[in-house]
Design brief:
This protein has 455 residues and is of the alpha+beta class. The protein folds into two domains: 271 residues, no CATH class; 113 residues, Alpha-Beta Plaits (2-Layer Sandwich), CATH 3.30.70.2750. The chain has a ten-stranded mixed β-sheet with strand order 11-12-8-7-1-2-3-6-4-19, with helices on both faces. Strands 5, 14, 15, 16, 17 and 18 form a six-stranded antiparallel β-sheet that branches. It is globular. It starts with 6 loop residues before the first strand and ends with a strand.
Length: 455
């Protein structure tokens, strides 16, 4: 009797800016069937939209090109397939850039790129609002019309369906825009095992698998609180791999000989990351009940995950909207012992007094004393009188760029006309940045029409 079929999905990026070596290491370090690359956070979409406004050929995660270049021999020669949300707000341009790579041009028909479209609602916003879709803020209830003139991007979170369609169409690289992070892993499993749209327990298992590896090495030893001093060789940390079976059970592991650690503790820490209601982890495909998840150690760097239950998805999709919300600037100074905290407090009072005398107006001004309880606040207790140094960090935000600009010129004078023993101003005057705010909303699934094209 043959052993049950196993599909291996490897995580190679957990965010835009993750370790550039990870994708290549995942496909060369041992057998994998799929490489999953997750690039998008909520704020990333607005950054990419600004890039596209400046240059219509941009708007995608450009790190993806280097990742693809490093794994193309495995894609065209060994049959490894890549699924990534690197498309951002311009998936077609991303696909064209991949095809234009030397390896992409040479691959010819061996390389088939599937492009998932339909998540970008920005061109349709006015029509959707006029048709009775208020896209109300999930936290405040305010309709999107109140900030419509400042909207930078609006993207619906798509599920696994269009990725499955692209894989079924023969794509060995699938590029999406704003899909759920979990869909990047679940779609290959759904495609390989033929899980039906109402097979809720197996779909929920695919979602949990995706949630565990969506942040890369965060579940294999990186950023791990439990026993962190004992985690071996983070310099060569192994990124996680899902070994999934058709029944929905799977093992979390990593390539032999790599650093880090896969344990029930590291997997459990990742499970509670951005979990929300443990009874209802909502995705476009299914609702997963995290309270049903069971973990069991299965040898070195192997954790079996099983018992997962799911139920039907909601009729809505989440929409991530980013909009302009004024300007901000942050300045820092470091005060040295003795009396470092007292000096930093005096500098803050002096700075605020001068800003007030200038008549500057801010929506908010925030001071942190880093090294004297800024991270844990009151829980840290009173600061020690013997602190070797304290960083004064002051940030302002507001709608008037001129007032923010003037604030940036009031930090430096404290070096000579404020409290003594100051350092840490080598970076120069703070820079004014535009504030991009997040607006979460829901929309009826029926008005979002994903599509798949091939290049």
């Amino acid at each position: 009797m043959s052993a049950p079929r196993v599909v291996r999905v490897a995580s190679g990026q957990g965010f835009w800016g993750d370790w550039l070596e990870a994708p290549r290491r995942q496909v060369t370090g041992g057998p994998v069937d799929y490489l999953m690359l997750d690039y998008l956070a909520e704020v990333t979409m607005s950054i990419l939209q600004k890039q596209k406004e400046r240059d219509p050929s941009l708007g995608y995660a450009r790190d993806f090109l280097g990742a693809v270049e490093s794994v193309l021999p495995a894609v065209t020669g060994r049959g490894v397939r890549v699924v990534a949300n690197a498309g951002g707000v311009n998936p077609q341009a991303c696909a064209a850039a991949v095809r234009a790579l030397p390896g992409g041009r040479d691959a010819g028909a061996k390389l088939r790129i599937g492009v998932v479209l339909g998540d970008d609602l920005l061109p349709r916003l006015d029509a959707l609002i006029a048709a009775g879709h208020p896209l109300a803020n999930m936290e405040t209830g305010a309709p999107l019309s109140t900030v419509r003139d400042r909207v930078l991007s609006a993207n619906a979170y798509l599920g696994s369906g269009p990725i499955v369609e692209a894989l079924a169409g023969g794509a060995n690289i699938v590029i999406t825009g704003r899909s759920t992070d979990t869909a990047l892993t679940m779609a290959p499993l759904r495609h390989e095992f033929g899980w039906a749209a109402d097979d809720y327990n197996r779909l929920a298992a695919g979602i949990v698998a995706g949630h565990i590896i969506e942040c890369g090495a965060q579940c294999s030893g990186g950023n791990c609180l439990y026993d962190w001093r004992e985690i071996p060789d983070l310099g060569e940390v192994g990124y996680p791999i899902i070994e999934a079976s058709a029944d929905g059970t799977f093992v979390v592991t990593k390539h032999p000989g790599t650093g880090g650690r896969v344990s029930t503790q590291s997997v459990a820490e990742q499970l509670v990351y951005e979990m929300g209601d443990p009874h209802a982890y909502i995705t476009p495909d299914v609702i997963a009940d995290f309270t049903t998840i069971r973990l069991a150690a299965e040898g070195t760097d192997r954790v079996r995950v099983y018992g997962i239950e799911g139920r039907p998805a909601t009729p809505s999709l989440k929409v991530s909207v980013a909009y302009r919300a004024g300007f901000k600037a942050v300045g820092t100074l470091v005060y040295a012992w003795p009396d470092a905290f007292d000096k930093a407090q005096l500098a803050d009072r002096v700075l605020r007094e001068r800003l007030d005398h200038l008549g500057l107006r801010f929506d908010r001004i925030l001071t942190e004393f880093v090294g004297a309880g800024a991270t844990h606040g009151a829980l840290a207790g009173p600061p020690s009188e013997d602190l070797p140094e304290v960083q004064l960090r002051v940030g302002v935000r507001g709608s008037n760029r001129g007032d923010i600009e003037r604030f940036t010129r009031e930090i430096a004078p404290l070096v000579l006309n404020g409290p003594p023993s100051v350092t840490g101003f080598a970076g120069g005057r703070p820079k004014v940045e535009e504030v991009v705010a997040y607006w979460p909303a829901l929309i009826d699934k029926r008005v979002v029409q994903p599509s798949v094209t091939f290049q």
